[in-house]
Amino acid sequence: MSRPWLFGVTIAALLAFATGVQASPVAYAIYEADNKVYQINLDTGVATPVSAAPLSFAPLALTYSGNSLVALGRPDSMNTQLYSFPAPAGTPVGIGTGLGIGRANSAGLAQDPSTGTLYGLIPNNAAEAVLYQIDPVTGLATAVPSTVPNPYADGLAFNTSGQGVAADSLDPLGNGHYSRFDVDPITGAVTNPALIDIDPNGDGYYGYANLAFDSAGRLWLLTSFGALYQLDPTEPGGVTSPIFLTDATGTPLDSGEWRGLAIEPALLNVPEPSSLLVCGCVSLLGSVCYRRVRRAPPEYGTVSLK
Is residue 157 domain-shared with residue 216, that is, in the same domain? Predict the structure, then answer.
């Protein structure tokens, strides 16, 4: 009995399976408890160290510049320097002799994908966040001076259209809120504060903010105490329930601070090898069946799959 519909149903099912089996999205961050780079599964919050040896500097921020991880850190008590990683697990190399701004205690670091420019958002001694353009070749920083003093912020991210977002845990009410800001890369202004209530334990805990966009346009916030959130890109106060970072056994990773959040969009939502195998089989099956249909003699009509 002829079943011409069976071919279409089979192909549709295989395609659905192939597109549905995808690698979990990942991010990278630095855990100060052992001063190593960790890979974070954004679906589960499981974090795994990828660097064998501790970093040689005190970390402040982490992001992607091009296809490489870059970090801001303090090699000593007086300077802040840019570092580049040959791979997430590789030993970072210091770029230049420093940013030229002296010591920093916190920072945001992000690349604007619309221009390819690397920026740092670094508070000064007056607790004002200053936006800098950072040369990824020389490691030197050039301030983008705002006409009015900026509020304090130490997290930074840019979406694909070049709109900057900053965040900080500074809450004048002490209720565990974080604040979100807009960042203008042209004027250097940090404006439009909006409170985000992400107090996990009600004690008004303060900490650093780490931000990153993924390839789907989702904005992620990693607090320094190891809580991972998604922020609503259209609603400044919108936030998901937290995912607390753990190791593979489920043990919380909260004995040290987390610094930086780096997501490489090109590596997100890539089919796993099994998916690619299924896709290849589907393509091959479609090609064979197509030839069978095309090669059927006209007097016998098309060939039906039994």
Answer: yes
Which helix (H) or strand (E) segment is 259 a member of? Answer: strand 258-262
| Shared-domain flag, residues 292 and 164 | no
pLDDT, position 208 = 87
Q: Could you tell me if 118 and 108 are in contact, meaning their C-beta atoms sit under 8 angstroms apart?
A: no
Over the stretch 110-124, which tens digit does the pLDDT of each residue have? 999 999 999 999 999
Question: Is residue 70 domain-shared with residue 177, that is, in the same domain?
Answer: yes
Q: Reduced to 3 states, what is the DSSP secondary structure of residue 40?
A: strand
Rounded distance, CA 21 to CA 17, Å? 6
In the structure encoding, which two tokens stand for residue 286, read together? 């479609």
Residues 151 and 296 in one domain: no
